[in-house]
Amino acid sequence: MSTPPLIDRRVLEALLDIELPRRGAGDTARLVVVHGRYRDGAPAEFGIRFGERQRRVRVSDQTSVLGIVDAWERHTAGTGDGSDAILVITTGVDDHQLGADLRAHALGRRALSVDRAEIVKQRFGAADLDPRIRQEPWLIDALLDAEPADGWRVHPAGEPWRRSGGSVLTRDTAVRALVGARLEPSGALPGGGDASGYRDLDVDSLLAWSRVPGAALRFAELAADERAGITAWLRRYVGDAAAVLLALVESGKGEDAMALGVVASVLTDAARTPDAALAIGGLFAGVTHDTADLRAFASAVQGTLARWIGEAGSERRGHETARERVMAVLDRADDLARAAGLGQAAAEHPFLPSGLDGRLRAFASALTESPRAAGEALNAVLDHRLAELFADRCGVAVMAARLRRWLDAPGSSGVGPSVVGSVAGGVAGQMRDGGWVDRALTVLWGGDPGNDPVLGRAYRDTYESAVRRRASLDEAFAARLEDWAAAAAAEAPGGALLAESVLEEIVLPLAREAAPLVLVLDGMSASVAAQLGEELARGGRWLEITAVPGARRGAVSMIPSVTRVSRASLLCGAATSGGQTSESAGFADFWKRRRREAALFHKAAIAGGPGQRLAQPLLDALAGDAVVGAVLNTIDDALDHDREGDRTGWRTSDITFLTDLLNAARDYKRPVVLVSDHGHVLERGGREPAPAPDAGSARWRTGEPGDGEIELAGPRVLEGGGRVVVPWREDIRYTPRKAGYHGGASLAEMTVPVLVFIPSADLVPKGWSILPPEQTVPRWWTGRDEPETAAPEPPARAVPRPGTRTAPTQKEALFTVGEAATAPAAPAAPDTLGTRVTRSPVYAGQRKYLRKAPDGRQVAAIIDALADAGGRLSSAAVGAAAAAAGGRAPRNADLFITALQRLLNVEGYPVLGLIDSGATVTLETALLREQFGVDE
Asked: How many CA atoms lie within 13 A of 234 on its CB side?
């Protein structure tokens, strides 16, 4: 006979499972002789089941006739106790050497040969095998050797066979099962696999497998013909990238395979140098490859990394582990690139961390050149593949670029009193621009999270330039405030909205539509208000409205800008001072005089009991018809107790109970007013406290003013006997260090943001309008190139006499498709893209398909607004553009936009679309021109 093959327990089990039933010897067989050599260490005794019966199997490996005879005799002598165990003797002795007496006891009266292909068929439970499997001994041997402990019929690696539902085990199915068992790629990716644990093979799973410790070594230890067979199959099934990956594994570079793929992507750059190509060739020394295969491998690695980076986003579950996985590959790739001397090729790489560092440094250099150069450099930073993972570093760069644009914006270069024409103008400017500047300054103060010294110097220079500009505005505002405060009062506000007039002028008109919720965010500055407003508008659940077209309102705090006088005056509707008791009584009294019930809740009365977020009395008030107020102290507490730390932003979830109250207000269809009592300035490492024995708080005192201070006196000065000294410079304080301060005369402290939100458009008061998010953000913030038109200062207000009532008026309709109010004849419309479209024959044809088409002026205005905005506007901005064109704003935004789509999407082409779950309207301008036949 031939050289005995190596067999193990599984082979014997399969052989017995085949031969015993075939020969009807399941109950009678005592001796089985098998041509083969039993694997060392394999179990010498085990059990097998035939139907309902369990039998023991004892295995003895013998190399001589004497050994075989002795083993049989010992077995028969030991069965006198009634045991019916089967003795299996594995041997290389030929049949003719065995005596006839021994063969007479053996199953089949001869030594059985092992048909390994039949064993494979049995182990898979197949009715037959693909003939190609029988022609590849390496595959048969590998399938027998690699069978999992729980068998091919159960293990996830055998899932492709079980799913096939066929009776013939094909070669592809067999090799796929082998790869699953040898490489175990299903467990390489987090969350990989279905309920059975199986994951289909792809380049992602193979690349992840290469990162598993020990995986590459285990593959390299396989027989050469098995490695070659697996590699050839994976090249065909997964692609050329698999061949390069496994070649790297065989050469001992498996764990660096992905990092090498990142570096090899330099080959895909048309501008690569011969030196770079040579350096990469050196990294792949010893690996058989051609350039096309390397490019395919590099492309596959980049695709996988792009998906991994997406999984590492901060909003994804398990993002920290995913981030570590990505950075382990890219940090190693950086090391390899440096060792290979790739130089500039690595510095410009879109995946390498050093490439991001290089782009950030180029941006730092561009900051000193021009806003355009800085913008182009910033775009390069944001285009880097790691920008999302290093959002903190890129976010600081974005803020630096914004400040650069603000510093260089037309009309902002001058300094001095002429910049701030009035107190009202200063507050309006703070709401329009200053709050956003402060927001950027807060981020820039924190510096580069990567601690790059080049970036640090550039950011410091930009920060200091902006602070100087900011200080000049504060100085100009203080000069205006000094004269204005002497006579300013609710009866003579000098064109400004006063903190004590907010209830009368902002909240009361809302109350005529529905009982509002007034949320006083103690210490909220214009910067914080900008962040919260941006978040609420982005969510799409709230519409912001305003009484001043195109602008948010800001009120002037009491003097000094401290809680005791400012919050009490705000909530009482009159200049006064006091604590919570005075505020609650004054709030109720204000609304009682206007024949409304009202309730004010301070911090201790807001929290609910066990299992309830909000207190029941507060919920009952919200469910009723009373005007409800709530005071939230999170911002002021953070400043006062030094918990601001390195915070660079505020979200609604950061402010205790704010999200709960907003949700409740929406549930009860209440308008919401977000208002502060004063703003604040932050501690920025300024001077030590100025000696001030007469200090009333951190930012006001009595006495004579010094450098950076002014003296204020007048009807609204309610501390210091009606005369106080306050600093306009942010670095002056009179008390020990805290995270932030208020009480001074800077714009950040004196401006009281007033933001108004409604849950539905039918709550817009008469004379008010929806404020689209685009109109709340300064152009320099977004980088839009169009010149900005300064918002007009608030007009002088007529103050109603006490006791007078406004006659009720019919509520203005909103979001009505195609209904326009009667208006005087308008002059001929200018020749814009929108007017050319609405005058075109194609547009006239489209109108015939709508029973009631939107007004043509509105359609033209919307087209022009979208085109001017680069093809994207919020749905609120679209409604505002329609209203501005004449007539009434659309009552139902969804129906109105659907009508626009029917008009503009000729033959179904997507000229007008919706993204962001319907919150943003898009316009494909080029397609619009083509469909309607209009020229540039």
From this structure: 28
Structure confidence at residue 533 (pLDDT): 95
pLDDT at 744: 96
Query: Which pair of structure tokens corresponds to residue 697?
Result: 């708080």
As given in the structure block, the two tokens for residue 462 are 């930009």
Contact residues for 271 (Cβ-Cβ < 8 A; gap 6+):
none
Give the pLDDT confidence score for residue 196 in this predicted structure: 45
What is the spatial distance between Cα 306 and Cα 350, in angstroms, rounded to a whole number?
11
Give the dihedral of Cα atoms 575, 579, 581, 584; nearest 10 deg: 50
Contact 727, 707 (CB under 8 A): no
Give the Cα-Cα-Cα angle 558, 560, 565 (nearest 5 degrees).
55
Predicted TM-score (pTM) of the model is 0.79
As a whole number of angstroms, the distance between CA 750 and CA 566 comes to 10
Structure token pair of residue 364: 């730092």
- Rounded Cα distance, 367 and 364, in Å: 5
Low-confidence residues of the chain, pLDDT below 70?
A: 1-2, 79-82, 185-200, 267-273, 288-289, 314-318, 410-418, 642-647, 686-687, 784-829, 886-891, 936
Tell me how far CA of residue 895 lies from CA of 385, 856, 902, 911, in angstroms: 39, 16, 11, 17
4 preceded by cis ω (within 30°)? no
d(C-alpha 769, C-alpha 763), whole Å:
10
pLDDT at position 267:
67
Under DSSP, the state recorded for 82 is S
φ, ψ of residue 479 to 5 degrees: the values are -65, -40
Please compute, for residue 337, the number of CA atoms within 13 A of its CA located in the half-sphere on the CB side. 28
Question: pLDDT of 612-632, one tens digit each?
Answer: 999 999 999 999 999 999 999
Taking the C-alpha atoms of residue 807 and residue 296, their distance in angstroms, rounded to an integer, is 76
Asked if residue 883 lies in contact with residue 815, where contact means CB atoms within 8 angstroms, the answer is no
**Strand pairing partners for 753?**
554
Q: Could you tell me the two tokens for 843?
A: 């547009």
> pLDDT at position 251, please?
85
Q: What whole-number distance in Å separates Cα of residue 377 and Cα of residue 355?
A: 13
Residue 885 CA to residue 882 CA, distance in Å, equals: 5
Provide the pLDDT for residue 81. 57
Quick check: 751 and 556 in contact, CB under 8 A?
yes
Q: Give the ranges where 853-935 is alpha helix by DSSP (H).
A: 856-868, 875-884, 893-904, 925-932
- Please, are residues 508 and 756 in contact by the beta-carbon 8 Å criterion? no
pLDDT of residue 412: 53
Contacts 24+ apart (CB under 8 A), 849-854: 849/902, 850/899, 850/902, 850/903, 852/817, 852/818, 853/818, 853/899, 853/903, 854/817, 854/818, 854/882, 854/890, 854/896, 854/899, 854/900, 854/903
Helix axes 171-183, 224-237, angle to 10 degrees: 110
- pLDDT for 272: 64
Q: What is the pLDDT of residue 745?
A: 97
The pLDDT value recorded for residue 418 is 43
Q: Cα–Cα distance between 316 and 239 in angstroms, integer?
A: 30
State the DSSP string of 482-508. HHHHTT-BTTB-TTPEEGGGHIIIIIH
Q: Where are the alpha helices (DSSP H) in 799-855?
A: 833-838, 841-847
Residue 23 confidence (pLDDT) = 83
Give the separation between CA 469 and CA 747, rounded to whole angstroms: 13
Distance CA(706)–CA(727), nearest Å, equals 9
Nearest-angstrom CA–CA distance, 578 and 561: 14
Phi-psi region of 864 (alpha: psi -120 to 50; beta: other; left: phi over 0): alpha
**Side-chain half-sphere CA neighbours of 351 within 13 A:** 30
**Amino acid 669: pLDDT:** 95
Tokens of residue 197, six digits: 């644990």
